[in-house]
Each structure stands twice: as C-alpha cells, then as structure tokens.
Amino acid sequence: MAVESTARKQPAENTPLFRSAPHNIEVEQALLGAILVNNEAFYRVSDFLEPEHFFEPLHQKIYKDVSSLVRSGKSATPLTLKTFLPADLDVAGLTASQYLARLATEATTVINSADYGRNIYDLALRRALIGIGEVMVNLAYEAPIEVGPQAQIEDAERRLYELAESGRYDGGFQRFAQALTTAVEMAAHAYERDGKLSGLATGLRDLDRMMGGLQQSDLIIIAGRPGMGKSSLATNIGYNVAKAWRGDVRPDGHITSVDGGIVGIFSLEMSAEQLATRIIAERTGIPSSRIRRGEIETADFDRIAEAAREMESLPFYIDETGGLSIAQLAARARRLKRQKGLDLLVIDYIQLLQGSSKRAAEGRVQEVTEITTSLKALAKELNVPIVALSQLSRQVESRDDKRPQLSDLRESGSIEQDADAVLFVFREEYYLRNREPRPGTDEHFKWQTEMEAAHGKAEVIIGKQRHGPTGTVKLQFEAEVTRFADLASEDHLPARM
C-alpha cells in the first residue's frame, strides 16, 4: 500500500516539473505595434483591455502610457512614447527607441487588433484562475482551525464571481469624472424608463414618488410586527418588478435589463408553494385559503391556470432553503446573477439568517450586526437593491400609538445604521379588530366608525431614507388576497350619481 501511495504522488511522465503561466509575448508585441502605427486600434480594445492584462511588465507600461496619451487627445507613436520610458532601458540589446520601432514594424493590422486584444485578455483570465486555484490548494492544505471547508468554498466562489464580472469590484479610487458620468447615465436611463424613475419601479405609485424607485446597491429594510403584511408587500413589489421586465441583448450576447428586473427571493420562512399560492391569490383575487381548501369553481380554476401561465415566463426565482448563513446566501446570490442575471434581491427575513460561528458566540446582537453589514456589502458588490424584511420588538404593543419607530428595530441598531431606507408596514385595522368593545355600547359605535375608516387601508412609514424624504404613504390592502395597491385619492374616485 505504501508503494502504491508513493506512486500516486509521482508526477506523470509527460507532466513538466515547471510550467510558466499562460502568455503570448508575440501577440502583445503585435497589438502594441498596431496601436503605435494607428491609434484607432486602441479604441477597438480599450473597453475591455487594461494594462495589468499584459504579461510582460514593459508592455504594461507601454500600454498604460499609450492609453494616457490617446485619451488626452494626443498621438501615441514611437517618437512621442520614448520619452516616457527609461533612458537606460535594455531589451535584449535594444534601446527604448529601437524596441518601440521594432514593435511598429512588426505590427498587426487594425482589423486584427480586437482579436489580439481578446487573446491577451483571455490569457490574463487564465492566469487569474491559476492564482485562485493556487490559493484554494494552499488554504486547503494549511487551513486554520476556525476556517472550515464551507468557508473556503464560499471564498473561492466569491473570487470566481469577481473574476467573471471582469474586475468590476477591484476597488480603489476612481476619478470623480467617472462618477459624474455614471450619475448622468442613471438620469438618462430614468428618462427612458417607464415611470421616469432612477430606480426599479415598485408598482406602487405613491411609494415610487417618495423613493424614486428602488436604487441600485441600496439596502432597504421593510419592518413590521407579525400580521402587518410585510412579506406580502415585499412579494407584491418583487412580482411587479419581474412582470415589468424587458431585456435587450448586448453585442457580447449578454442580456441587460431595460425595464423592470430579474428578481430573486430567499423565502426562509414560507415554502415556495406557499409563496406561489399567495401570488396566485393576489393576481386572481381568489383568497389563498379557498385555494388551499379546494373551495373553487370551474371559472376560478380557469383564472388560476391563466395566472399560472402568465407567471411561468417571469424572471422570478425562489430559494426556500431554511437556516442559511449570510455567507451561503451571498454565494447563492452571486451564482444567480452569474447564471440568470439579477436586478432585485428579496430576503424574508433577517432574523432567520445565521452569522458566522464566531459572531454567534459573541451574542445575537453581534451576529445581526454581521448580517446587516454583509447584506449592505452584497448590495454594493452585486449592484442591485436588496429588500430585507425584519421583525420589530414587542415594545410596539405596549404603546397606545402602535405606529413603529426606528428604535423598535429588533436586536440591533446596525439594521438602522446599515440600511439606506427603512420602511415600516402598519395597519390600524389589525389592532382595532382585536379590541372590539361590547356590542350596543357607545364605545362600540365609536369603534365601528373607526373600523370603517381604517378598513382595507395600510400605511408604509418611511422612517429613514438616504436619498429622499421621510413620511407616510397610504396604500390599499386586501387581506384575503394579501394584495397592496395604490389608494385612490378623492380626485381619482369615480363620479357619484
């Protein structure tokens, strides 16, 4: 057995003991030469090729200097470029001027420059993959006790996601001009999008007016006591976003969202079947309790089948796995965006997530702090809004005015701190129904008046918003079908006969 084990460790006969990282110096030289001969070649690769994608450090330096010259409106030639290279440069016996001249004489054509640039880019990705693989192997051999295999898998998946996103999350400083360009593009997209919103439309007119839609990279908390309808509100918003989705195919084959969005829901409490039943009830107007008990007519079943057919084609994805850790949730969200796309993530709800074992040992407050901090970081990484639901503490019930406040957020002040917006769902009708006075009394008549005024109404209280005002949005709520809708104002009511 010992001999067999040793034999397995021997390198294969055809496997070299040393392998250099994938690269192609000749292709790098040909592309740089083409750019020096005709700067138009630069624009064919500049949208995806960066200096660090070149294997040879000198080529990285040349491409970086060429980029600076061309972007500033100057001509990049062997003559204008040589002053940026060291005077004592020696490349296989060639001076800087001689090497640049050699590059120009051996240049490829402008037509081939894009293919050469893609080849350089692909080789750089392969080198990056090798680097990730080496880190994985070394960590698997010498992992600290507190770093389990699952954590290593999640870390590797995060690195692979970042690589797949072509360095979008490389961090570091950027020129303010770049941020200004992004802001102007966002305004242009808002102008083109239905509803003229800078973010994703929730499908609720007054809420969109107050918030401008759901903004990219924002963490939005929807909080409320049990029975208020926070899960229903989040589900309604998610469905409205998915229903409005329109995509456009980019030149590289990827699909980008033009309106609406691709939605992912982590349903940690309800099963996918329960969530689907809720949405069917909301779309058809048939109470979910009747659907579950089979108390439906033929016409009702036809409506259910029609709603199901309509929903089948929606970009709406559900993960019903319970007991997820925040690291597992992040890994699954990255995978969904990579494989299907993602524009909105909904999490129901924060208190059912788990943090790392280290934070859990320090107490629930520290664990929730880690969860909310990680959710905000994930929203920025994926560049999508994350709507996360949260329970409120019982102290709400002890007050005469049951309307929630920021101080009612349960277990951690980090929820308020990390969130870009905090929305509270409140229904006066829920509390009034539970304190009905004895019939026939003056109190009962007063109670009936209050119930009529509160019936079918809900409030979404915006307790915090980084990008806009706070305030209250009044909505219609149909409890039997768990549907939120715009509340008709007096000037939108039908004329009375």
The structure class reads alpha/beta
As for the number of domains, it is: 2
Unreliable spans are 1-11, 167-173, 491-497
- Biggest beta-sheet profile: 9 strands, mixed
- Output the radius of gyration: 29 Å
- Large-scale geometry: elongated
Major β-sheet strand ordering? 5-4-6-7-1-8-9-10-11
Considering DSSP H and I runs of 4 or more, what fraction of the residues is helical? 40-55%
Molecular structure report:
- With 497 residues, the chain is an alpha/beta fold.
- It folds into 2 domains: 25-142, DNAb Helicase, Chain A (Orthogonal Bundle); 198-492, P-loop containing nucleotide triphosphate hydrolases (Rossmann fold).
- Helix content is 48%, strand content 12%.
- It has helices at 2-9, 25-37, 40-43, 57-71, 78-81, 96-105, 110-141, 149-164, 176-192, 205-211, 230-243, 272-284, 288-293, 298-312, 326-339, 357-362, 364-382, 414-418, 428-433, 442-454; strands at 219-224, 246-249, 255-259, 263-267, 316-319, 344-348, 386-391, 421-426, 457-465, 471-478, 483-486.
- A 9-stranded mixed beta sheet has the order 5-4-6-7-1-8-9-10-11, with helices on both faces.
- Helix 2 (25-37) packs parallel to helix 4, helix 7 (110-141) packs antiparallel against helix 8 and helix 11 (230-243) packs across helix 12.
- 31% of the residues are buried.
